[in-house]
Design a protein that fits this description.
alpha+beta; Alpha-Beta Plaits; 16 strands; 9-stranded mixed β-sheet; Aminopeptidase; globular; 2 domains; 13 helices; 5-stranded antiparallel β-sheet
């Protein structure tokens, strides 16, 4: 593995970023050799941190791990302690993931700082590279824990500490096993005056750039999100002896609700709204027993926050009606509420100027997917750069990125840094 890590240094900056993501696609950076899965605070997480720490230090960065496991590499500016341009993304993945979602943004930021360090160039501001430990929420039932904490958006750390994974392990216990102190989580929050701006590069996770035959795009904003846990409570019973008309089937109730959710979202699709039920579980979970309890996720997104909220109210009302008709109880637990996050016009303008200088059209597009940038927007102006991904495929092992596109992304990010320096002079 060390040989592979050293060989990538001869590659171009973008190709090096892609190669590092490829290396991170296998154990020890994955929980299993069968598929890429790197969840928050699992053994694959510190393996990734260890390699990133080595690369950061080699690029003349000081390295710290904050109380929630976010890795921060700081490339100091001309003046020690100056506010920082934060470049970041996440290193956790969904189950059976692709290699580039999140990780590519971290590796591209690393390549940028390596170029600055090689030129022994210092800036009026520091640059901090942040590898967020949790964005996906694939282990604990709350997403973007790392970036929300850094932005000071978590007010109830006791609830966060008590979150449990599917094995019943609490977040607080996982942090302790990781060598971190759960009681210090509030120390993750950054003072807004310490952050000059936030920049995130990310694969598009959609098909627009490929359809336009473009390598890069400038993001205009990130969709608002709501996430719920919906719990249905019926009555478990014998599958062979309980008449159909007398059943209180929690799973059948959830199934009808899922189809209703899909139809309501289709009606708003013209406005860019979506809704997804991505996970469901039924208990007791036996073939010959009617489900007495069923839980499911509900994720609602729209670029317009008002539309998103209207959809949520409509869906919850409809689900409640379905449950009442079926004599099944239903409860809603809100897990996440992310408002729409418009990108900063001035910073986006700097990105567009950088692309124009490279002879690339300043193509603009919105993000339906959530990103750590949405949280960091609470404490700093933020911008996002999207990189073309083959077929628009993401959250899938088939994710693919052209190293030539990644080279263009590094160039655009460095030109953005140049322009940010000129604007702060």
């Amino acid at each position: 593995m060390e040989t592979a890590l050293s060989n990538i240094e001869v590659l171009s900056p973008g190709a090096r970023a892609v190669a590092r993501c490829d290396i991170f696609g296998k154990p020890p950076y994955s929980e299993t050799p069968a598929m890429l899965t790197r969840r928050f605070l699992t053994p694959a997480h510190p393996a990734a941190i260890a390699s990133l720490q080595r690369w950061m230090r080699k690029a003349d960065m000081s390295v710290t791990l904050d109380p929630l496991g976010n890795l921060i590499g700081r490339y100091e500016g001309n003046t020690a302690g100056a506010p920082a341009l934060v470049i970041g993304s996440h290193i956790d993945t969904v189950r059976d993931a692709g290699r580039y979602d999140g990780a590519l943004g971290v590796m591209l930021g690393l390549s940028c700082i390596e170029q600055l360090a090689a030129a022994k160039r210092r800036l009026p501001f520091a640059i901090e590279l942040v590898a967020f430990g949790d964005e996906e929420g694939s282990r604990f039932p709350s997403a973007m824990i790392g970036s929300r904490a850094m932005a000071g958006l978590i007010s109830d750390y006791a609830s966060i500490a008590a979150l449990e994974d599917e094995d019943g392990v609490m977040l607080a216990d996982a942090l302790e096993r990781f060598g971190l102190d759960p009681s210090s989580m509030s120390g993750t929050a950054r003072a807004p005056e310490s952050v000059l701006a936030y920049l995130e590069a990310h694969i598009e996770q959609g098909p627009q750039l490929e359809a336009e035959d473009l390598a890069l795009g400038v993001v205009t904003g990130i969709a608002a999100q709501l996430r719920f846990r919906v719990s249905f409570t019926g009555t478990a019973g014998h599958a062979g002896t309980t008449p159909m008309g007398l059943r209180q089937d929690a799973l059948a109730c959830a199934a009808e609700a899922i189809l209703a959710i899909e139809e309501m979202a289709r009606q708003q699709a013209v406005h860019g709204a979506v809704a997804t039920v991505g996970s469901i579980d039924a208990k007791p979970g036996a073939a010959n027993v009617i489900a007495g309890e069923t839980g499911m996720s509900l994720d609602i997104r729209a670029l317009d926050g008002t539309l998103r909220d209207e959809m949520a109210r409509h869906m919850m009302s409809c689900i409640a009606d379905i449950a009442a008709r079926r004599n099944v109880g239903v409860e809603f637990e809100q897990l996440q509420d992310l408002p729409p996050s418009p990108c900063d016009p001035a910073l986006s303008g700097l990105l567009e100027e950088a692309l124009g200088e490279m002879g690339l059209p300043p193509f603009r597009l919105a993000s339906g997917a959530g990103h750590d940038a949405a949280a960091l927007a609470a404490i700093a102006p933020m911008a996002m750069l999207f990189i073309r991904c083959a077929g628009g495929i993401s959250h899938n092992p088939a994710e693919a990125v052209d190293p030539a596109d990644a080279d263009l992304a590094v160039e655009a990010m460095l030109r953005f840094i140049d322009r940010l320096e000129a604007s702060t002079a």
